[in-house]
Amino acid sequence: MIATKRTIAAGRAAVEIPKDGVLKEKLLLSRKEQQWLTRIDEALDGFPKNETTLMRNLEPQCESLYDKASYDL
Q1: Contacts 24+ apart (CB under 8 A), 14-23
Q2: Is 73 contained in some domain?
Q3: Which range marks the domain in which residue 64 is found?
């Protein structure tokens, strides 16, 4: 459960940091880029809270992107 919370927290930070930059007028993003940030943020709301379920859902799309053994998975 802790890993799932960390994954979601990292995703939220990855969205909030650029959004904050836009609000403070320190970062210029196109409307389309801002829409993507919103879309990602909303997708994070739909992530399962259970780590096993999250991994099972992401594995088909992401299994080629990392070496499971390196992460003791």
Answers
A1: 14/40, 15/40, 15/41, 15/44
A2: no
A3: 2-68
